[in-house]
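Appendix B: a complete holo record

For completeness, this appendix reproduces one full record from the ligand-bound portion of the collection. The bound molecule is adenosine-5'-triphosphate. The inputs are the chain sequence and the ligand SMILES; the output is the full three-dimensional arrangement of the complex, encoded as structure tokens. No fields have been trimmed.
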Amino acid sequence: MSKVLEVKNVSKDYGDFKLKNVSFSLEKGYIMGLIGPNGSGKTTTIKLIMNLLSKDSGEIKMFNKDHIADEVKIKEKIGFVYDGDIYPSGMKLEKIAKLIAPFYKSWDQHIFEGYIKKFRLNLGKKLEDLSKGMKIKFSIAMALSHKPELILMDEPTSGLDPVFRREFLELLQDIIEKRKASVIFSTHITSDLEKVADYITFIDDGEVVFTDTYCDLVENYRLVKGKKEVLNNHKDTLIGMKVNKFGIEGLAKSDSCHTLTENEGVLLERPSLEDIMYYVSTRD
Ligand SMILES: Nc1ncnc2c1ncn2[C@@H]1O[C@H](COP(=O)(O)OP(=O)(O)OP(=O)(O)O)[C@@H](O)[C@H]1O
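The structure of the chain with adenosine-5'-triphosphate bound, as generated:
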């Protein structure tokens, strides 16, 4: 299968924060979610991919081409949604679109106007006069109107209301089915990823903890619940744990916890992505 993105051993040293040997890849036609606690390096990784920051070492390829040597060609095929102000200020939406559209050979004004209508945006308004959510919607419309093959988004859903968030996720799935595009997006809303993601990459303190299919991930772990006096004897099996008034809850690798159910009152459940992220990032 053809890879649309390959990140290999990429590092960046900010002094008090280091992104260390980050590696993951994505094939055509799939959605990957990038998750991790605040300050773990998700935005830094996305900026490095987009060459908005220069890497210290490692290799980044998009569509089998180096992301810097072939930057202009590559960016033609990328839709980028970023939680920062990437458009010039003081301009009406219509003018911003007129300014940006000529940079893309495949810009489709009909598609753009369709999104503007669908997202209920007013082209006569200035960008700075839009709400946070409306700004993101405009950014999404701009990113999708040149029919990108890879859509890269940094926390696109964080300022969106739940109804639009759901519509947006459906829109992404539709684009992937019809055009075989690929999507990478970072988010703290793990329930969004449970709806659409094929792959999950988890970054913690600048390192990739896992990059796996969503299905394998939730099969590989189990949420363990039981009495303190029982589970205290199995601490080594638990990746992370917390004590509550009912007993102990923790996470364990599926293949290491079968014998736990031989103990009275121990329950094994399928974890949510949030459970996995919580216990893996709070492990000692
Ligand atoms: N330009 C910079 N100079 C120095 N340090 C930086 C710079 N940009 C980011 N950092 C640091 O790099 C670390 C990772 O930041 P990053 O924005 O990549 O995290 P994140 O995972 O996207 O976080 P969040 O979920 O809060 O958005 C943080 O400690 C941040 O302070």
